[in-house]
Amino acid sequence: TFTTMSAGIRKTLVSSIQLQDINHRADEIPQEVKEEKTYTIEQAVEEIGFGRFHVLLFLIMGSANIVEAIEIMLLAVVSPEIRCEWRLEDWQVALVSTMVFFGFMTCGVLSGYVADRYGRWKVVFGAFIWAAYFSLLTSFSPSYGWFIFLRTMVGCGVAGTSQGFVLKTEFIPAKYRGYLLPLSQIFWMLGAVLMVFLAMTVIPSLGWRWMIRISIIPSIILMFLFQFIPESARYNVSAGNVSGALQTLQRIARMNGSSLPEGKLVEPLVTQRGSFYILVSSTFRRTSMLLWYSWFVASFSYYGSVLSSSELLEKNLLCITNAESEHKINPEVTPCYCIPFGNSDYHTMLISSLGEISLLPLNIIMLNTLGRKYSMAILMICSGIFFLLLSICSTLFGFTILLFLLRSIVAMNFNAVYIYTAEVYPTSVRSIGLGFCTSFSRIGGMIAPFIAQVLMSKSVITALVPFAVTSFLCSVGALLLPIETKGRALLQNET
């Protein structure tokens, strides 16, 4: 009996040990699977942090703003020259700017769609080539009609370069975006100053055609430098190219002297990329509508300030209510003004261009303390006030100070609107979202010349009031935006 009981106990113990071993091995496999670490693209970007790659990115992609600024400021400095050469009336000069912005508008959405579907890098690189090619052709324009057509094509190309802002935003960690993205305004200012300097030195000796030819040099340089910038890792992941995204992240980590998070890069494939319906879905409808108006006003006020200053200086309208009678101009006999800029006019434009970065530290502080929404609201109120102050009769020095401050404020607002737009939309529609916004902004750019360059000759105050009123209304719209993006992670999908 004792032997039988001992055998039974041994059998029970062995069975128990075997059962425990089997259970342990059975638990082992799921446990290994459970412990496999993964990370998202957002976590990778934050883990890599800021380093040498981002400095290179900032310098090269920031320089894309130089190209856009040159093309925009060219409209202001070349207006008196083509007015004289082709004997143009006010509406014909304004039509040049309008058609450039028409090119921006039509190609803005298209470039955004292509960037979301096929990649940001391809769009930006192609846009550099397109803009430089047609800008060069502009310098050979035999007539006013050809000039308008070719500048419209330039506008179409520059619309694509704005996707460089998306590419840059998608590589920068969240806590650095509020500092680095506003600093891009430095490059815009450099482009504006370069254009005015070229006009001041080249036009009197070689003419406006050689000024345009020289102005495409930055675009050519950027075509070579842009080879050092990779495709957006966020885009690659959204398109299912996880290996490409991983290679890019590993390269950035090596440049920055950091490492990726442990585990495997995992992100769901985004099936709907570049879809307009996401922009007007219940999630983003209100945001999109308010942003479209904000972009309209940002462009309307910015180009209004640039073109108004050009018109006020060219026609000496600072303290004149009716330019035609004061300057003894008979539209039937002399249908155009032919008054080239003097050195003092160029100096005023240079100083006002420098104003675009004068309040940059304040802009950074506002974006990182008050947030994007409240910054936009405050800046729009201030710009409306300064537009009204611009109508007050003053000396050239007083006008220069007011213009300096106005250009600072409208440039700060453009910064805030750009950053908010790039942060609020998910990767799947970030480019087309920016594309639609820039297209609405170009509508503002299309209208601005007819007010700043045509209506201004009739009445300075009448021309400046629309800029002020739209700015005040925009400040209300900024407060109604449902999302604050300060410190917020960039979304991959709409949910």
From TrEMBL:
Give every Major facilitator superfamily (MFS) profile domain span: 57-486
Query: Annotated Gene Ontology MF terms?
Result: transmembrane transporter activity
List the transmembrane segments: 55-79, 91-114, 121-140, 146-167, 179-204, 210-229, 290-308, 349-367, 461-481
Q: Which GO terms describe its cellular component?
A: membrane
How is it placed in the membrane, per its record? Multi-pass membrane protein
**Keywords on record:** Membrane, Transmembrane, Transmembrane helix, Transport
User: What protein is this chain from?
Assistant: SVOP-like
Compartments where located: Membrane
Family of the protein in this entry: Belongs to the major facilitator superfamily.
PROSITE patterns listed in its UniProt record = MFS
